[in-house]
């Protein structure tokens, strides 16, 4: 997940010339979703270059999917969704173990509030 966010930020700054980036992480039942939006240049159409193709391959390897949206002057949005059952199967873990890892992550960063966790992650990535 961290690599996806880092690559998204790099693309937004390098290619989109974005001045603002919004990162959201949402856990719903058995799914983890990450959305990265920016206010950069955007485009009508885009080619899956090395960065996007690599992200898509890594996401699909664990059963997730990548969604990309963009319009000229309206920035870029990347959405990455994970199903915890598929993650568990690919990593040879149980669903309970995947959920426990998420719970441990929240504990380690000192919160069980998703919004606060996202803010802490943003701060960590900006250092």
- Based on the coordinates given, report the CATH architecture: 2-Layer Sandwich
* Main sheet attributes: strand count, strand direction, barrel closure: 4 strands, antiparallel
Number of helices: 5
Name the average pLDDT: 78
Q: H/E element string?
A: HEEHEEHHH
Query: Would you identify the regions where 5 or more consecutive residues have pLDDT less than 50?
Result: none
Number of strands: 4
Rg (C-alpha, Å): 15 Å
Strand order of the largest sheet: 1-2-4-3
Query: What do we call the CATH homologous superfamily?
Result: Histidine kinase-like ATPase, C-terminal domain
Instruction: Name the helicity range.
Output: 40-55%
What separation lies between the terminal Cα atoms? 17 Å
* Principal-axis shape: globular
CATH third-level topology: Heat Shock Protein 90
The CATH class assignment is Alpha Beta
Strand content of the residues, in percent? 15-25%
Structural class: alpha+beta
The count of domains is: 1
Please tell me about this protein's structure.
- The longest helix is centred in the last third of the chain and has 14 residues, at 95-108.
- The mean pLDDT is 78.
- The protein has 127 residues and is an alpha+beta fold.
- The protein contains five helices and four strands, in the order αββαββααα.
- The protein has a single domain (2-125), classed as Heat Shock Protein 90.
